[in-house]
Design brief:
Order of helices and strands of chain A: EEHEHEHEEHHEHHHEEEHEHEHHHHEE
Number of strands of chain B: 13
Structural class of chain A: alpha+beta
CATH architecture of one domain in chain A: 3-Layer(aba) Sandwich
Strand content of chain B: 15-25%
Number of strands of chain A: 14
Number of helices of chain B: 15
CATH topology of the largest domain in chain B: Rossmann fold
Helix content of chain A: 25-40%
Distance between the termini of chain B: 26 Å
Helix content of chain B: 25-40%
Structural class of chain B: alpha/beta
CATH superfamily of the largest domain in chain B: NAD(P)-binding Rossmann-like Domain
Radius of gyration of chain B: 22 Å
Number of helices of chain A: 14
Oligomer: heterodimer
Order of helices and strands of chain B: HHEHEEHEHEHEEHEHEHEHEHHEHHHE
CATH class of the largest domain in chain B: Alpha Beta
CATH superfamily of one domain in chain A: Thiolase/Chalcone synthase
């Protein structure tokens, strides 16, 4: 096998994330991804250039957008000869796209590529229900007027009820929040700890904006310049007043404040070889060095829906020969504050690490001051497929600012999946 | 849930109809409440000769303050209304002695009071020195089981086999079977073996002990937790996170600790042990109550439906018990209690998975009991029959009515009936009781 090449994260760009049914309510997935992509092309001076590949995806996508990313490329400032494809791995989509692009670069199949993701919770794809769908298909197959009329007699009022995508697991019928609430109970994650994490996320993201950190990571869109969900003036007290939305009764701890809201947005990341970057006058920010996916069997209830990253990370660490403490930054996607806290607690727990992970010793604690230093999804919002690109670009820039170092990315996804990766700075 | 039929039979119209039409006439059972006496009424004691067991029984009767008279043959007197008839048959050395049963009981059985108690104490047949004695002792079972079906007005009949060297172990068992705590235990056979004499306070037999109860949030599990707490135990309640609120209510009322987990989780045994060690310094009583049903005829059964039931009902108790024993989290002298089911004994249509799991629980008891005696750890199981719970409330009306009536007491049991039986197993004074499966079924016809 040929030696693999280093995969540099060169630049990233996203549009500010908007809350559901607000500023981006009429923007489609394609509109938003095009905006994010064009912003990246403008900033990196790649207009008219052909890239190795553009890989992106959306979790909630209309069936008509089957070739969405290629269509976006055709409508973008990139050369129309740039190939593209769609992927979907729930909330892991964005990071998985970066891993796929990175792998082709590492193997010498392409020199540079863009990974991205987009999601809209406002412009949701609504489908006709199965009854109506069958009637319409039969109507299409009918040959005579009589046959057509016969098919139409099957129409019933209930057939107009559409199928709306639900944020629920098909096998358990429980929403992700309800699943996370069970995990929170199992791990004894308190309301206070969750609110504290949410508060820090808002403060960190606000500070990142204040010091201009987001300047070259974001392109304003439809008049929005900052993430709409960000509340720089929130307080622990305000968060503590919110009523729980997932779970019931006195043991419920998860609120709209410590859970991510439904959001619209798009993100992109440019990856390449060192040589390609130099040729294009670009400087690598960091390198994508390791990645891993894992999945858990949450259906029977013996493991939490969002606990897969807890399994993926130790496997990746073992391959990389690293410990959990060998990082300068930890980017743990805040699907829910409780998800982050349960994952951290699991890694500290000797029983979990021994019995479920098969390790001799727990992975141990992390320095909380290194966690989500520029805020994460609780503050920024979480347009499912766009989160990976936001994190990769932000962490790469943070490593660059730091003059090097190492960062861990962990993203949980629907279906009991987890996608994790390591970024390393160019020096240090 | 309420038994509407039983309520109706207590009304004047209901009484008339029941009497004239010969309908089932379920007598409301008496249950233990704060301040209840072990036995509230006259006891008649009979025996075949003077035996060690007989002396122990009489000492116990004096101890609980029972007013009792002894009679070799039953006393036929219309004035006497005995609450309990206790017969020591350990002296039966051959089938010739069995006539004493008829002579003692026939004259007096009609006088037995409401919610009366009949206890026959025999010698464990397998431990008899002679075949003649073995035969005579084994015969007792047919007697008590039949008498259980004859006695009326909520009375129960049970047989206690005591090993030759175990008379000092009879106390907790006699107390249980005499008292309202055994209201729904009928037609059962219990074997009492040798063990250390534990002089605990019968009012708080579990004082200073720690008990873990799985599935403690609702129904029978909640009743078990409350009953063990009443008896002085510190209770650690385990249930799935879905039942967190219910578990919180139950455990906060009894000052217990909560552990939210799925007993089928790969690390559930370790978590239970760790929680117990950390919060309570270990365990003395383990009650495997968590259970589920996923009824399907075998032809329509899917592997996941099959395994879901086996995982919760059988594999989890097996794994948890093994770990608690091996890790030492369960203290010496401890008690493990499984919850089987009459379905596990009799079988049930549509419950191949459930009955397999529950028969497996009986296997767990029988397999482990002789293997853990060196640490004085005991393992027993209850096998509930028709118990009035949320689960049985969902059973279709006709099946529910049949389930309720096809037993000697003609009614469903209450969760507390199962709980009381478990509390008796858990009592350190029941040191001589291991390997038993006791049905809490009102002497159900099913699998009897």
């Amino acid at each position: 096998m040929t030696e693999t090449r280093k995969v540099a994260v060169v630049a990233g760009n996203r549009i500010p994330f908007a809350r559901q049914d607000k500023t981006y309510r009429h923007a489609s997935n394609s509109d938003m991804l095009t905006a994010a992509l064009n912003g990246l092309v403008d900033r990196t001076g790649l207009g008219g250039q052909e890239l190795g590949e553009v890989v992106a995806g959306a979790v909630l996508k209309h069936a008509r957008d089957w070739n969405m990313v290629r269509e976006v490329v055709l409508g973008s400032k990139l050369a129309p000869t740039t190939p593209a494809y769609d992927i979907q791995q729930a909330c892991g989509t964005g990071l998985e796209a970066a891993i796929l692009v990175g792998n082709k670069i590492a193997l010498g199949q392409i020199e540079a590529g863009i990974a991205g993701g987009v999601d809209t919770a406002s412009d949701a794809p609504i489908a006709v229900n199965d009854e109506l769908r069958n009637i319409l298909l039969d109507l299409n197959r009918a040959k005579s007027v009589q046959q057509r009329l016969q098919v139409l007699t099957r129409l019933r009022p209930r057939d107009v009820v559409p199928e709306i995508p639900r944020n629920a697991e098909p096998r358990t019928r429980k929403s992700m929040g309800e699943h996370a609430a069970l995990t929170a109970l199992e791990w004894g994650i308190t309301r206070e700890a969750q609110d504290e994490l949410a508060y820090r996320s808002h403060m960190n993201l606000a500070a990142a904006y204040d010091r201009g950190f987001q300047q070259d990571l974001i392109t304003p869109y439809l008049g929005l310049e900052k993430d709409q969900n960000l509340r720089p003036d929130t307080t622990i007290e305000k968060l503590a007043k919110l009523k729980p939305v997932f779970g019931k009764g006195e043991t419920a701890t998860m609120t709209a404040g410590n859970s991510t809201p439904l959001t619209d947005g798009a993100s992109t990341v440019l990856l390449s070889t060192d040589e390609w970057a130099a040729e294009h006058g670009l400087k690598p920010l960091a390198y994508l060095t390791h990645s891993q996916t894992a999945a858990v069997d949450y259906v029977k209830g013996a493991e939490g829906l969002l606990m897969a990253p807890a399994y993926a990370v130790p496997r990746m660490l073992a391959r990389a020969g690293l410990t959990l403490q060998d990082f300068d930054y930890y980017e743990i996607h805040e699907a829910f504050a409780s998800q982050v806290l349960a994952t951290l607690k699991a890694w500290e727990d000797p029983i979990f690490c021994k019995e479920r992970l098969g390790l001799d010793a727990p992975l141990g604690e992390i320095d909380r001051d290194k966690l989500n230093v520029n805020g994460s999804s609780l503050a920024a919002g979480h347009p499912f497929a766009a989160t990976g690109g936001r994190i990769v670009a932000g962490l790469a820039k943070q490593l660059h600012e730091n003059g090097g170092g190492r960062g861990l990315i962990s993203i949980c996804a629907a279906g009991g999946q987890g996608v994790v990766a390591i970024l390393e700075g160019s020096t240090k | 849930m309420t038994d509407r039929y039983q309520t109706f039979t207590r009304t004047p119209l209901g009484r008339t109809l029941v009497k004239n039409l010969g309908l089932p006439d379920p007598t409301p059972l008496q249950r233990w409440t704060e301040g209840s006496r072990v036995i509230d009424g006259q006891v008649v004691f009979g025996a075949i000769g003077e035996t060690e067991a007989g002396k122990a029984i009489q000492a116990l009767l004096r101890d609980v303050g029972a007013s009792f008279s002894t009679a070799a043959e039953g006393v036929a007197s219309s004035e006497l209304r005995p609450k309990a008839l206790v017969f020591d048959a350990t002296g039966a050395t051959s089938t010739a002695d069995l006539t004493s049963l008829q002579r003692f009981f026939s004259p007096v059985i009609r006088q037995l009071g409401t919610a009366g108690r009949v206890i026959v104490v025999g010698r464990t047949p397998e431990l008899s020195p002679s075949p003649e004695q073995h035969i005579a002792q084994r015969a007792l079972e047919g007697f008590t089981r039949s008498l259980g079906k004859e006695v009326k007005r909520g009375a129960t009949v049970n047989l206690v086999y005591v090993a030759p060297d175990a008379h000092d172990q009879l106390d907790s068992t006699l107390r249980f079977f005499l008292s309202p705590k055994s209201a729904y235990v009928d037609g059962q056979v219990v074997r009492v073996g040798a063990g250390p004499v534990v002089g605990n306070d019968p009012a708080a037999p579990l004082a200073g002990k720690v008990a873990v109860v799985t599935g403690a949030a609702r129904g029978i599990g909640a009743a078990i937790a409350q009953t063990l707490a009443r008896d002085g135990a510190t209770v650690m309640g385990v249930d799935v996170p879905q039942n967190a609120n219910d578990l919180r209510k139950v455990m906060s009322a009894i000052g217990g600790s909560e552990l939210l987990l799925d007993v089928t989780a790969i690390d559930a045994p370790q978590r239970i042990a760790a929680h117990a060690e950390e919060h309570h310094g270990g365990l003395d009583v383990v009650v495997h109550n968590a259970g589920i049903t996923r009824d399907k005829r075998l032809a329509n059964m899917r592997t996941d439906t099959w395994d879901a039931v086996l995982d919760v009902n059988l594999r989890a108790p097996e794994r948890i018990t093994t770990h608690l024993l091996e890790s030492g989290a369960l203290h010496d002298g401890g008690s493990v209690i499984g919850v089987a089911s009459i379905a596990g004994i009799a079988g049930n249509n549509g419950q191949t998975n459930y009955a397999t799991s529950k028969a497996g629980v009986i296997g767990l008891v029988q397999a482990l009991a002789p293997r853990i005696t060196d640490r004085q750890i005991r393992i027993n199981a209850v096998a509930p029959g028709f118990i009035e719970t949320e689960m049985t409330a969902r059973v279709p009306f006709a099946i529910r009515e049949v389930g309720r009536r096809v037993n000697s007491l003609q009614q469903g049991g209450q969760p507390v009936d199962v709980a009381e039986t478990i509390a008796w197993f858990a009592d350190p004074a029941s040191a001589g009781i291991t390997g038993n499966v006791v049905r809490v079924c009102g002497q159900s016809m099913l699998g009897a």
